[in-house]
Amino acid sequence: MSQPIIHKLEAESHVADAVAKYIADLSAKFIAANGSFSVVLSGGTLIDTLRKLLEPPYIGSIDWSKWLIFFLDERVVPLDHPDSNYKLAYDGFLSKVPIPQSNIYPIKEKLSPEEAADEYEQRLKQLVANGTLKASPITGFAKFDLMLVGMGPDGHVASLFCWHFQRFEKKKWVTFITDSPKPPPPRITFTFPLINSASEIAMVVTGEDAADAVKVALGENASYGYPLPVQKVSPEGNLTWFLDSEATSQL
Questions:
Q1: E strands, 44-186, in order
Q2: How far is residue 140's CA from residue 138's CA, in Å, rounded to a whole number?
Q3: Using one digit for the tens of pLDDT, what is the confidence trace for 1-60?
Q4: pLDDT of 72-90, one tens digit each?
Q5: Cβ–Cβ < 8 Å for 156, 189
Q6: 3-class DSSP state of 87
Q7: CA–CA separation, 50 vs 15, rounded Å?
């Protein structure tokens, strides 16, 4: 992996501007090369940070019909539930852009966490088999064009938490958790081998509550001690951090 690119920006609004240009450029690049652009969304504040894509020049210039949308992790709740990452993404972003509904891949409802994780993994494998998604030549896992990843104040990414064994999963593409330290407890999540097979990962981190974890992950003592989950993000392609001044206040 190459060294991460780190953008330290003044305000969250500047992060939103930078992320929009970054995504638009990648969209044009991957659509020109492959005819599609596979994007993995996470929850939290990330969806709001995508708001600039809903404005000119991006809203009218991006070829939304070629986007494929997936979810980094998901709460095992109905898709119209307030805790659903799909609902968050749909209300704040997906309903405002002309991405075909058939290109959006939420989890299946009315399954147990284990069943939902297995079903999502099998769907991803089928999309690789039929050529909708690329496969990593290194891992054989699906190789998404772009993963948009947030980070919790404790340094977790997706639903891979520091003291949970799911962060060590090597074989599964998608796993499940029934005791998330943040409610709701049941979730499914991409594993690190799948996350790190990506072509591009954007770590989008804003706000003062992230400052301590950013200091651990990017500070001068980052290689010391037990790594936070965010420190395991190491894609085959490029890792780009987008940070505001509050998130970098401890660096």
A1: 67-71, 73-75, 134-135, 142-143, 146-149, 174-177
A2: 6
A3: 579 999 999 999 999 999 999 999 999 999 999 999 999 999 999 999 999 999 999 999
A4: 999 999 999 999 999 999 9
A5: no
A6: helix
A7: 9
The predicted model scores a pTM of 0.97
Please, what sign has the CA dihedral across residues 59, 64, 67, 71?
Answer: positive
Report phi then psi at 155, rounded to 5: 85, 10
Buried b / exposed e along 198-212 (16+ C-beta atoms within 10 A) = bbbbbbbbbeeebbb
Q: Please report where in the chains the tokens 């190459």 appear, as a residue.
A: 2
* Kind of pairing between the strands at 200-205 and 238-243: parallel
DSSP string, 190-229: E-HHHHTT-SEEEEEE-SGGGHHHHHHHHSTTTTSSSPPG
In whole angstroms, give the CA distance from residue 173 to residue 170.
Answer: 8
R_g over Cα of the chain: 17
Q: How far is the C-alpha of 150 from the C-alpha of 204, rounded, in Å?
A: 5
Give the sheet arrangement for strand 73-75, strand by strand.
Answer: 73-75, 187-190, 174-177
How many CA atoms, within 13 angstroms, populate the side-chain half-sphere of residue 170? 0
Cβ 144 vs Cβ 71: under 8 Å:
no
Listed residue (132, 108, 131, 110) closest to 120, CA to CA:
108
Residue type, 233: V
Query: Could you count the other beta carbons within 10 Å of the beta carbon of residue 234?
Result: 12
Q: Are 153 and 96 spatial neighbours (Cβ–Cβ below 8 Å)?
A: no
Find the length of the chain: 251
Task: Of 72, 10, 64, give the one whose Cα is nearest residue 229.
Answer: 72
